[in-house]
Amino acid sequence: MNAKAPWITYRPELKVLDCTIRDGGLINEHMFEDKLVKAVFQTCVDAGVDYMELGYKSSKRLFAKDKFGAWKFCEEDDVRRIVGDGKGNLKLAAMADAGKCDYKTDITTKDKSVFDVIRVACYVHQIPDAVDMIKDAFDKGYEVTCNLMAVSTIQEAELDQALEVVAGTPATTVIVVDSNGSLYSEQVERLVKKYHAAVAPSGKEVGIHAHNNLQLAFANTIEAIIHGANRVDATMAGLGRGAGNCPMELLLGFLRNPKFKQRPVLQLLQDHFLKLRETVEWGPLVPYNISGQLNQHPRAAMACRAGAAKDNYVEFYDKCVADV
Is 46 exposed, middle or buried (0-12, 13-18, 19+ CB in 10 A)? Predict the structure, then answer.
C-alpha cells in the first residue's frame, strides 16, 4: 500500500495572515474598541501568526473620519498605541484599495512606519492604478502584495492579462480573492494553478482569501494549500464582512506546524468573541448562502440583515433572482 498522509506534517514555507480587524471592520465601520484590537494583536503574537492586517489606508477626502473607526485609516499613532514595542516576529499589514487611497501622501516610507506590508486591493479594471500603487509602496520600502478582488466575476481573457501585468510588478504575492464567497473547490484548484503558472516564474507566491457564504471558506483554503498556495488569510472565529472568512482556529489546527499555537486563539474567542457576537453579526446565514450561490456581491444580503425583513428569506431570494 503506497498511500500517504501529507496532512499529518506541514509545509514550513506556508505563512498565515490574520485579517480579523480589517475584514471584520467592514461590519461595524471599523469601530472596534482598543481592548479588542490589542487582544487580537497579542493573540497573533502568541499564536505564531506571520502577519496581521489591521485595516485600511483610506482617503480622508472620500471617507469622513467622524463616521468611521481608526482602522479605516490606520494612522501611525493609532497603530503604535495598540502594538507598542511588542511585535515580536509578527509583521503588520494595511490594505490600500485602488481608487480609495491617497497612497502617495497617506502611506509614508517604511523607515517611518510601524507597518511592514501594504496589500494593494483592486478590481480587474483597476489594474493600471494598482500597478502604480504597488510600485509606490515597494519604492517606499514595503513588502507588497496584490489582492485581485471578485475573481469569480472576471472573464478569462481579462484575468490572464491582469496576471501577466501583475507578474511584472514587485509584488511578492498575488492573492485569489473570493469576494462573493461563490467558489467551489474545483474552481479554487483551477485558479490557484493559473495564478501559479502566471506569477511563479517571477518568484511570486500565490495566496487565498476565502469568504464563507457557502460554508466553504475553510475547505477552499485547504484546497488552495494542496495546490501550492503558500500565503493564506484567516480571521478569528471567521469574523469578516457578511458571511465571514476562513476561521483561524480551524486553519492553525489543520496546518500542524508546531510554530502555530491554537490555545491563544481559543482563549481570545472565549474571552472576547462570545461577547462580540452579542453586538456584531457575522456568519453564513441564509441571505449570504443565496448571494454566494448566485455569485453576487454580499452587500444586498448585508442590507437585508440590517433591515426589518432580515429573516424573510423568500423575499430576498426572489429579489436576487430577479436581478440575475
Answer: middle
**Which residues have a Cβ under 8 Å from the Cβ of 85 and sit 6 or more positions away?**
none
State how far the alpha carbon of 152 is from the alpha carbons of 63, 200, 224, 262, 279, in Å. Answer: 28, 21, 15, 32, 31
Lowest mean pLDDT among 6-10, 49-53, 204-208, 210-214: 6-10
* 11-276 homologous superfamily: Aldolase class I (3.20.20.70)
| Angle separating helix axes 127-139 and 156-167, nearest 10 degrees | 20
Interatomic CA distance for residues 194 and 206, integer angstroms: 10
For the segment 128-139, what is each residue's pLDDT rounded down to a tens digit?
Answer: 999 999 999 999
Contact call for residues 232 and 206 (beta carbons, < 8 A): no
* Separation of alpha carbons 103 and 310, rounded Å: 38
User: Which residue carries 476562513 as its cell?
Assistant: 246
Cell numbers for 122, please give them. Answer: 483592486
Model confidence at 2, in pLDDT bands (50, 70, 90)? low
**Residue written as grid cell 468573541:** 273
Q: Is 79 a residue whose pLDDT tops 90? A: yes
pLDDT tens for each residue of 270-301: 999 999 999 999 999 999 999 999 999 999 99
Spans of all domains in the chain: 11-276, 286-323
Q: Which grid coordinates are listed for 297?
A: 456581491
The pLDDT value given to residue 85:
77
Residue appearing with cell numbers 502555530: 260
**Total-model pTM:** 0.96
The SS3 call for residue 257 is: coil
- Closest C-alpha to 199, from 224, 151, 167, 168: 167
Residue bearing cell 482598543: 34
Q: How far apart are CA 177 and CA 168, in angstroms?
A: 20
